[in-house]
Amino acid sequence: MGKTRKIVNIILCILFIAFAILQLNDPDGWLWFLIYFVVALISIIENFKKLPKTFLWVVFFGLVIYSAFYFSSLIDFLKTDNKEEVFGEMVYEKPYLEGTREFIGLILAALAILYHLKRKPIS
Q1: What gap in Å lies between CA 102 and CA 104, rounded to an integer?
Q2: Helix, strand or coil for residue 30?
Q3: How do the pLDDT tens digits run along the chain, 123 residues long?
């Protein structure tokens, strides 16, 4: 495994641990902590052992399927004029903001898993 790939895996691990910790203040924080922590673990484990492609595909499709539940929130958000509010505080009158954030997080997690899948030689 190349040095660059190991560094990217470490960066992904740190990034998703940070994402996981930031979720702990949410009402459903343990679910999101678990999702992001699994991606972090996969990223660091990939530095030492190749995980089975089947496992990575299951995780990838699980994340994509789960993100589909939040796709309507993204559509609602895209119809708004103020796109910067996705980076602001949660507003209870605008539940699509949280849904959009969750959609983006799941897609980022899925992309990290896809990175691990695409870096493996075809067997």
Answers
A1: 5
A2: helix
A3: 688 889 999 999 999 999 999 888 888 889 999 999 999 999 999 999 999 999 999 999 999 999 999 898 877 777 776 656 656 565 556 677 778 888 989 999 999 999 999 875 544
Task: Give CA angle at 21 (16, 22), nearest 5°.
Answer: 95
State the pTM of this model: 0.84
Q: Within 10 Å of residue 67's Cβ, how many Cβ atoms?
A: 19
Among residues 43, 45, 20, the alpha carbon closest in space to that of 33 is found at 20
Q: Are 63 and 34 within 8 A, CB to CB?
A: no
- Exposure on the CB side of residue 14, measured as CA atoms within 13 A: 6
CA angle, 34 then 97 then 8, to 5°: 45
